[in-house]
Design a protein that fits this description.
2 domains, about 250 residues, five-stranded antiparallel beta sheet, alpha+beta, single chain
């Protein structure tokens, strides 16, 4: 999916703003991003004491600062170095420290000297907005129904919408869940949930099957469900049904 790759690459400018301007956290959470459903955009954490943020607007395919000045860059036709130069200049205008593009992880695709950002497929962008929205709403509803607490954030390395929370049943178990982008496990955007005790993933080979989705017990141990065709209620049911298995209720 071409636009997924383009947006994943563009999100790295937000991640590197977190790296450039925020105190490093051991879990890398200073790099993770929020998603505004109303504005269809990714958002950094506040980057200074005045609340300055950098946004990536999906539909406009543009970077923008949350400043009084109109500081926006349309990404269409821009190369990587052009974007970096703009970020260095505009962050300086805003009184931020020096911006630098320096990732400490690798991505499945790269930007060479010939790379240009292009808004090649607006329908794909709308599908990605709808999928992020579905994932975020389903996670929020699930957490509320189960009386669990977690932030819902997008992690720029794997570009997943994710949550992580300890169970409140005294079992010492925790769950990680969210929506992942296509990979070797599923050739589609997909929901996932996995259980842990400490740092160890709980094995799923003996779990009862799910109404939707399937259990995996290989390198990844958990349940997966492609997003295509799902409603929010279906997604919540998937998470709740999987949680019930982890809690040994069924």
């Amino acid at each position: 999916m071409e636009m997924l790759q383009q947006l994943h690459l563009a999100a790295q400018y937000l991640a590197t703003s977190g790296i450039s301007f925020l105190e490093k956290k051991a879990d890398d959470s200073h790099t993770n991003l929020g998603f505004s459903i109303d504005k269809a955009r990714l958002e950094t954490w506040p980057l200074d004491s005045t609340g300055t943020q950098l946004f990536l607007n999906y539909r406009e395919f543009a970077l923008a600062w949350s400043s009084a000045e109109e500081l926006t860059m349309d990404l269409r036709g821009k190369g990587h170095e052009e974007v970096v130069t703009w970020l260095k200049k505009t962050s300086e205008q805003l009184g931020l420290p020096s911006y630098h593009f320096d990732l400490h992880y690798s991505l499945p695709y790269s930007m060479d000297d010939n790379f240009k950002f292009e808004l090649s497929n607006a329908d794909q962008v709308e599908h990605l907005i709808q999928s992020r929205t579905l994932a975020q709403q389903a996670l929020a509803s699930f957490l509320e129904k189960e009386e669990l607490v977690s932030e819902i954030r997008i992690w720029p390395h794997h570009f997943d919408t994710g949550a992580f929370t300890a169970l409140n049943d005294g079992s010492g178990k925790s769950i990680g869940l969210g929506m992942a982008i296509p990979d070797t496990l599923v050739d589609d955007l997909y929901l996932y949930i996995s259980g842990y005790r400490g740092h160890d993933a709980l094995r799923t080979w003996a779990f009862k099957s799910l109404t939707r989705g399937k259990w995996v017990n290989d390198a990844f141990k958990g349940a997966v469900l492609p997003v295509s065709g799902l409603t929010k209620d279906m997604a919540v049911q998937f998470f709740q049904e999987a949680l019930a298995r982890y809690k040994n209720l069924e």
